[in-house]
Design brief:
Length: 132
């Protein structure tokens, strides 16, 4: 075989838990994800060329310790959408945290989904410092 295993990779996705599958789908759709059914209990959630699998499966200890990292170029634009959506009231989630500059240089906002999954929306400082 002439290609390396790395060259055979098409995508790398994680499975994100959903306590209330429909509420989670609505939540992610509202944030701008395109949702595509994969199976009765699985939905692909896609932004541009990036995606994860939302699953109708939930374990509290797992979900409450699960985190996703979304690297963006404009965290303030994302924050405007999140803040205007009143997610905490409408979905019963923890209050999102506005952007702040972390010690490692990225400007990060935090959002919790209906299952307790913590999303880090991060805009990196110029010159690619931090996680990239």
């Amino acid at each position: 075989m002439s290609e390396t295993l790395a060259e055979t990779v098409v995508s790398l996705r994680t499975f994100v838990p959903a306590k209330d599958f429909q509420a989670s789908q609505n939540f992610y759709r509202e944030l701008g994800f395109e949702l595509r059914p994969v199976a009765g209990n699985l939905v692909e959630a896609r932004l541009k060329g990036f995606s994860f699998i939302l699953q109708d499966f939930y374990v509290d200890d797992w979900a409450s310790n699960f985190m996703m990292y979304l690297h963006v170029t404009d965290v303030d634009a994302w924050w405007s959408r999140i803040d205007a959506s009143d997610l905490a009231t409408r979905y019963g989630v923890r209050q999102p945290r506005p952007p702040r500059v972390e010690p490692w240089g990225a400007k990060v906002a935090h959002v919790f989904d209906p299952s307790g999954v913590l999303w880090h929306l991060a805009e990196h400082a110029p010159l690619g410092s931090g996680i990239g």
